[in-house]
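Escalated from tier 1: nicotinamide-adenine-dinucleotide holo job.
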Amino acid sequence: MTSLDTRPLIASHPRPSRHPAALPSAAPYRPDDFDIAIVGLGYVGLPTALAYHHAGARVLGVEISPARIEAIRAGHVDLLPSDLVRLEETEGDPMFTVTSDAALLRRANAVIVCVPTPVDHHLVPDLTILQSACADVVANAVPGQIIMLTSTSYVGCTEDLLLTPLAERGLIAGENISVAFSPERIDPGNGSIEHEFVPRVVGGATPSCELRAAAVLSRYTASVHRVDSLAAAEMTKLLENTFRAVNIALANEVADICRELGVPVTTVIDAAATKPYGFMPFLPGPGVGGHCIPCDPHYLLWQLKERRVAAPMITQAMNEIAARPARVVERAAHVLSDAGMGVAGTRVLIVGVSYKADVADLRESPALEIIEGLERRGAVVGYLDPLCPQARLSDGRIVETVRDPSGFDPALVIVHTRHHELDLTWIDERHLVLDASYRELAVPRRFTL
Ligand SMILES: NC(=O)c1ccc[n+]([C@@H]2O[C@H](COP(=O)([O-])OP(=O)(O)OC[C@H]3O[C@@H](n4cnc5c(N)ncnc54)[C@H](O)[C@@H]3O)[C@@H](O)[C@H]2O)c1
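Tier 2 regenerated the structure:
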């Protein structure tokens, strides 16, 4: 890996200018030009950059965060073991460059944007990061490039943030530049299917953009499915994650029904999943986290609100999902109460605080809300998570993982996320266990939500 950090990190990201920059002259490409530039080296961008590098491409990674660049250089990043090996392979390799300097994008043949698209506290899409990244990309675009957006966003986003501003600079899609949208489908922490074998969907601004984008993706991925518009590709991603959200909400509801009826929900789901068609298993849980399910459907709902279009099923699913952590707190209080204990003053240990197994990602993790909800009721709360040594709560407090769970001596253990490396052999009959992960923990005194 080489570094081109020759100027202050912050200075490489000016606010977008209202005055379009002059159109750069036709690509004066040099031999050290980059095949692919990835903007944003996070959970999506870094594995993508490594996949391209592994496929023999000369890769430029543009990353705004100095801390992230440091972490990548030091190898202290949350990646699958196979991607950590690939990261090691970039060491000292001129084919892999990481920089904060967006001006280097001018030297890339293809530019792929992978920056976050979160929602704010009111669940309204926060587009500021994406707008800023796209403004950098547009300001540094050169004729002949292909620019591909992969961040999840609303339908029409690629047109608003790339196509139109590029045209204002005289860069016309299908004529002297290519523009496409290809939703990212990576599943951090899931090593069962390699990134390269997850098919990519792509739509271009014009048929020639679509073809060129498909060729860029085919450089590292085995299968590309082309759709005939940017909007269809954008909507595909929104459908995928809305589908997940609705089905997770349904699985949660079925879990509640099963508990009421005294039927083990996982037995029922496993049995239904033997049907070879018409059923896809989703597991209930303590809520959803990460950067997709809690956020993406809100991009669709937000867009529909402007058009006064209701989407009651999606809205209901998102409400149910959002209420799930509070339900865990309620259920914890019931379990304690049935055992003759109150919440106030009782020691509760949350096991696994990241939003899913085998990743260190705490974004939107239900565990944080559960910790805060229990603390509001006076519980003494600790957590155990070897992947997340620290966690920041919504009031800014930093809390640290318990090292010795037996020493913490919890009356109640809430199993939130089960990392493969988590040792739970210390749980014995002294502990009440609320298994919010529904992973059929074989421990005494286990309760589900
Ligand atoms: N994380 C997932 O599991 C996942 C899966 C599929 C799709 N997605 C989508 O992919 C997109 C990226 O998500 P992520 O999880 O990788 O986010 P992330 O927060 O892990 O990484 C984004 C990176 O972009 C950097 N960045 C922000 N602004 C920048 C700029 N102007 N220039 C250069 N770098 C910049 C950030 O510092 C960060 O390192 C989102 O739209 C998300 O919805 C995420």
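The chain has twelve helices and 16 strands.
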